Amino acid sequence: LVERMRGYGETIFAEMSRLAAETGSINLGQGFPDTDGPRSLLDAAAEHIRAGVNQYPPGPGRAELRTAVAEDRAARYGLSYDPDGEVYITVGATAGIAASVLALAGPGDEVVLFEPMYDSYAAVISLAGAVRRPVPLRPGADGRFTFDPGELRAAVGPRTRLIIVNTPHNPTGTVLTRAELETVAALCREHDLVAITDEVYEHLVYDGAEHVPLAALPGMRDRTVSVSSVGKTFSVTAWKTGWVTGPRPLVRAVQTVNQFLTFSANGALQLAIAEAIRGEQDWIRAQRDALQAKRDRLSAGLADAGFGVLRPQGTYFVMADVRPLGYTDGVQLARALPVEAGVACVPAQVLYDDVDEGRHLVRFAYCKRDEVLDEAVRRLTGAF
Ligand code: PMP
Ligand code: GLN
């Protein structure tokens, strides 16, 4: 293994899912739903495969999906992208993020991002030979995680090239407000930075919270590469289909890299997804409402079981503080829980450079059937 990838073992999501399987635990670790996406989407994919859509699609993706993505971003956020050159389909958000970072940051460049950070960011920054500058998100008295603008400003220096912004944020569930994003945007404009956004949970926001794409802020469209994907929106995490939208020169840079990583993504799925983006908006809203109720259901159960619950505004994750249970280390609890209680979660600590910031935090996924959540709570209650 090359030097720059030393220290990266198995991902925490794979490790905890394996532990969950070995122990027969309810897996509230890795984030994936236990019900399928809309029937029309599944049927359409099967039909397109049967109808012979089985060879390479164009590298940038099927025009049908590029157009649907562009129309959706225009209708939803007032952001205008040319499907031909400003929208690019990738193998999930994971490939979109990797290609974007590899295209835009090189050896010695610094990348500012918030921690806890989704695990692939750190790894691809390392692959690029770049250096990460994490800024902590910390919970306030209301349990909502946010950043200190002074700490963010201090992280930006002469070598900063990129900033990565994930909202709604995994694992904290924070939905950054327009005002918080304006702080980020002001720094980007002032220091001439490019932003990469990860918006895979864009539809999963609760209590009337609004997802604001950084690209929609003044002066940001032409310096932002926005990444999203279909896995969370339509409960098809295995489909690994995502997209990058941005100004032509940045998308061209991403394409230059990605054509050698994956070349193209699955064509039949792209056609089915294009149809669902147009036809299944009601399903997306119903799913959001269902997940909001599941958030409340699991949060209440975790609180009853003795965790300190940090209420999320988006995603399908909830962070929990293990200290009220008498633990100081979330890794210790996350390793013990499948064995002792038959429930798996993810220790958030591994998503921080500054381990002390997240030592006591674990993440639970609530994108599961109610009876599964209830059984998990039953197992957790009285386990300590
Ligand atoms: N970013 C975040 C914040 C995620 O939680 C995930 C996991 N779905 C991804 C990116 C990867 O998305 P995909 O499965 O589309 O590659
Ligand atoms: N995005 C999912 C999560 O945060 C996991 C994806 C993965 O396993 N790499 O749980």
Automatic annotation (TrEMBL):
One of its GO terms (cellular component) is cytoplasm. It comes from the Bacteria. Residues 26-380 form the Aminotransferase class I/classII large domain. SUPFAM superfamilies: PLP-dependent transferases. GO terms for molecular function: kynurenine-oxoglutarate transaminase activity; pyridoxal phosphate binding; succinyldiaminopimelate transaminase activity. The keyword Transferase applies. Keywords: Aminotransferase, Pyridoxal phosphate, Transferase. Its cofactor is pyridoxal 5'-phosphate. Its EC number is 2.6.1.17. Belongs to the class-I pyridoxal-phosphate-dependent aminotransferase family. This is N-succinyldiaminopimelate aminotransferase.
